[in-house]
Write a structure and sequence with these properties.
Length: 88
């Protein structure tokens, strides 16, 4: 199996239905057309990555953002790094 296929999930019909986004690692961020209209979400919680990034962009403290959305601080920092191009 090719390495990139480890980031693709397949449904019962053998078609791809989920894609894990590597740039967000170690946070697990996935694209799933059946969740959040296909927008990137944090795996497990279903929180939209864009919502986390918006709070950070507004100047909210990363610890507050993590607590508000029920995701880890590492996930918040990954969102800031990837979507905002800066460390949180």
């Amino acid at each position: 199996m090719q390495e990139y296929l480890t980031y693709v999930g397949f449904g019962a019909d053998d078609y791809p239905n989920r894609l894990a986004l590597r740039p967000f690692e170690p946070a697990k961020v996935v694209l799933d057309p059946y969740r959040a209209s296909g927008q990137p979400v944090f795996g497990g919680s279903g929180v939209k990555v864009a919502n986390v990034a918006a709070m950070l962009k507004a100047g909210e403290d990363p610890d507050v953002v993590a607590e508000e959305h029920g995701v880890g601080t590492d996930a918040v920092r990954a969102a800031a790094r990837v979507l905002l191009g800066r460390a949180a």
